[in-house]
Design goal:
551 residues; alpha+beta; D-Maltodextrin-Binding Protein, domain 2; Dipeptide-binding Protein, domain 3; 7-stranded mixed sheet; 5-stranded mixed sheet; 22 strands; globular
C-alpha cells in the first residue's frame, strides 16, 4: 500500500479537529513552537522581556465600522478585531486554534460540530459570554435580508435549505434549517449541518464572523461592546481610529481579559492609502504599516526596520461573468485563457516571491491543493476558438476590463501584461482604471473585472465563497450543480490525501470553464520599526496584537 506523508502543520490541525489540545499535538508532531507553549491559548506565549504600556501606531486605511457581518474589507475588520473576537483563530502559521471556544468536537460524518465555550469571558458591559450569544450571531448571519457573505461559507451554507422560490435574479431563496444551531447549555453550542463540512473552525475566523453582543445594532462604531482587550475610543473615517485598553466594565467592575497578557495601552490606526504607507513609515509617523507594494521593496530595504514577508493565497482574479456576452460563450472564455501565459506574468510582477496561479483559485499553500498539469499558452488554439465563435481579423474580439488597483498598481501591471499577450491572438483588451472605492461599488456587477481576493487557510473556503451557485460573492455568476457536488464531496473528506485527490475534479471543473485568468498568488509585505516586537506576519493580513509590544 502506498504511504502518504502529511505536513506537520496539517497533522497539528487534524489533531486539533480530533480534540487533541494544541500543546499535545505539537509534542506529538515533534515541535514546540511559541503558540504551543501558551496552554489552551490561540496567542503566542507571554514574553518575559516585554515592556508594558505604550502606543502602537499603524498606517492603514481607516474605514467605517457598520455591521461586522457584512464587512467586505480586511482593514475594517482589523479595526474591529481588537474589540470583537471569534470562536476560532487562524494564526500566522495557518493553523486554526480555539479562541472564544475552548475546544470543539466533531462527529465522524463531519455533520455535527459541538463547541465548548470558554468560561469567565466577559463583555465590556459586564455581561457573561454565553452560548445564546453565539446562537444570536449565527441566526443573524443566516438571515437572507442581512446579506452577509458568511452564508457563502460551507458551514453556514449547510445550515440553509431551499424554499422552492427564486429571487428576482433567478437564484433560489433559502431559509435556515430547523435546529441548525442550538445552545446545548450555557457554554455549549452545537451546529447541526445538512452535509459534511471540514472547514468549520477555519470558517469561524473568516472576518465577517466576529461575535457581536446580542444588543448589537448598526453601526458598530456607535456602541462597540466586545470581549476583546481594547475598546473604540475614537473613529474618524479617512483619518484615524483609536483603540484603548479596557480596564473597567461599563458597570464599574474591573475587566479581566480572558486571553492573558496584553502589553499595549493603545493602538492608533492612521489613514494612509497603500501607496503612502511606506512614506509615512519612513517619515517616522508610524511604527508599522498594513502593507507596501512590491514596487516599493527596494525603498523598504533602504529603511531602518524589519521587513516581514508572508507566503499567501492572496490573488487577483481577472474574471468574466459567464452569463454576460461575449463571455457567455465558453469558446470565447477558453480563447481568452489560452492567449495568456500565467507563469510569465508572475515572473514579471513578483520575480522573487509568490506562486503561479492556475485559474482555479486553489493555491499551492493550501493543504488540499492538487497539482494539475502546468498551463501552457496556446495562441493558435485561441485563434481557432475565436474563429469558431465568429471572430477574426475583420471582426476582432474587443473587451474591456475594469481595474481598481485595490491592492496596489500591480493589478494594472497584470492587466497590461494580459493585454499585450492577447494581442498575439487578435484580441483587443482595453483597461478601465478606476479609484479603488469605485471599483468596490461595481466589483460583483461588471462583466469583466480584476478583483483581489484575500487568503483563506483552505482552498475549499475560497471556492465556497466565490463559486458556489448563488452565493453572495459569486462575481462570475458561475453556476454548476456538478461543481457544487464535487466541492461538497471534497469538503466531506477529512483526511488530507483522499481530499486532495477529490480536489482534482473540483479544480479541473473550474479551470475547464475558464471563468477567469488568475496569474499569481502574491506575497504580502509589511515593515515594522526595530522597537516593535511580536508583530505578526499573517497571510490574510489580520491584526491580532495581543502579544505585540514597543520598546
Amino acid at each position: 500500500m502506498e504511504r502518504h506523508e502529511i505536513s506537520r502543520r496539517e497533522f497539528v490541525r487534524i489533531a486539533a479537529l480530533l480534540g487533541v489540545a494544541a500543546p499535545a499535538a505539537y509534542k506529538l508532531a515533534g515541535s514546540t513552537p511559541a503558540f504551543a507553549e501558551a496552554a489552551n491559548s490561540p496567542f503566542p506565549a507571554p514574553d518575559a522581556n516585554a515592556k508594558r504600556g505604550g502606543i502602537l501606531r499603524v498606517a492603514m486605511q481607516v474605514q467605517k465600522m457598520e455591521d461586522p457581518a457584512t464587512y467586505a474589507w480586511a482593514e475594517m475588520s482589523n479595526q474591529t478585531r481588537h474589540i470583537l473576537e471569534y470562536l476560532a483563530m487562524t494564526g500566522p502559521d495557518n493553523v486554526t486554534r480555539p479562541m472564544l471556544a475552548e475546544s470543539w468536537e466533531v462527529s465522524e460524518d463531519l455533520k455535527t460540530w459541538t463547541f465548548n465555550l470558554r468560561r469567565g469571558v466577559k463583555w465590556h458591559n459586564g455581561d457573561a459570554f454565553v452560548a445564546d450569544h453565539v446562537v444570536f450571531n449565527v441566526k443573524r448571519w443566516l438571515d437572507p435580508q442581512l446579506g452577509s457573505a458568511n452564508i457563502g461559507l460551507s458551514t453556514f451554507a449547510a445550515m440553509l435549505e431551499e424554499t422552492g422560490e427564486k429571487d428576482g435574479e433567478g437564484n433560489p431563496i433559502k431559509r435556515t434549517i430547523e435546529g441548525a444551531v442550538e445552545a446545548v447549555d450555557s457554554h455549549t453550542v452545537r451546529f447541526n449541518l445538512s452535509r459534511p463540512v471540514l472547514s468549520v473552525p477555519e470558517d469561524l475566523y473568516n472576518y465577517p464572523t466576529a461575535i457581536a453582543h446580542p444588543s448589537f445594532t448598526a453601526p458598530l462604531s456607535d456602541n462597540a461592546i466586545g470581549t476583546g482587550p481594547f475598546a473604540l475610543a475614537e473613529l474618524k473615517v479617512g483619518d484615524k481610529c483609536v483603540l484603548k485598553r479596557v480596564t473597567k466594565t461599563a458597570d464599574g467592575q474591573d475587566f479581566e481579559y480572558w486571553g492573558g497578557d496584553v502589553y499595549l495601552d493603545e493602538i492608533h490606526y492612521y489613514n494612509f492609502d497603500e501607496d503612502n504607507q511606506l512614506t509615512a513609515f519612513a517619515g517616522g509617523d508610524v511604527d508599522a504599516i498594513y502593507e507596501f507594494a512590491v514596487e516599493q521593496i527596494e525603498l523598504a530595504k533602504a529603511l531602518p526596520g524589519t521587513i516581514i514577508a508572508a507566503r499567501t493565497a492572496q490573488t487577483l482574479c481577472c474574471r468574466f461573468q459567464v452569463n454576460q456576452p461575449p463571455f457567455d460563450d465558453l469558446r470565447v472564455r477558453q480563447a481568452l485563457v489560452k492567449s495568456v501565459d500565467n507563469a510569465a506574468i508572475k515572473e514579471l510582477v513578483y520575480p522573487e516571491d509568490g506562486d503561479v496561479a492556475e485559474n482555479h483559485h486553489v493555491a499551492p499553500i493550501h493543504p488540499e491543493y492538487f497539482a494539475l498539469p502546468p498551463l501552457r499558452r496556446d495562441v493558435e488554439g485561441a485563434k481557432a476558438l475565436l474563429k469558431e465563435a465568429g471572430y477574426d481579423e475583420s471582426n476582432p474580439l474587443k473587451i474591456t476590463i475594469d481595474v481598481g488597483n485595490t491592492d496596489g498598481p500591480w493589478h494594472q501591471t497584470v492587466c497590461e501584461a494580459i493585454r499585450d499577450q492577447m494581442k498575439d491572438a487578435g484580441i483587443e483588451l482595453s483597461i478601465n482604471v478606476m479609484p479603488p472605492s469605485k471599483y468596490w461599488e461595481i466589483w460583483d456587477k461588471t462583466a469583466c473585472g480584476a478583483t483581489a481576493w484575500t487568503h483563506r487557510p483552505l482552498g475549499t473556503m475560497a471556492l465556497s465563497l466565490g463559486y458556489r451557485t448563488g452565493v453572495p460573492w459569486n462575481e462570475t455568476n458561475f453556476a454548476s450543480a456538478e461543481f457544487d457536488a464535487a466541492l461538497d464531496d471534497a469538503e466531506a473528506t477529512f483526511e488530507v490525501e483522499p481530499r486532495r485527490a477529490k480536489m482534482e475534479t473540483v479544480q479541473r471543473l473550474l479551470q475547464d470553464q475558464a471563468v477567469m485568468i488568475q496569474p499569481v498568488y502574491r506575497p504580502v509585505y509589511t515593515i515594522v520599526k526595530d522597537r516593535v516586537t511580536g508583530y505578526p506576519a499573517h497571510p490574510t493580513q489580520y491584526h491580532q496584537f495581543n502579544r505585540v509590544w514597543v520598546a
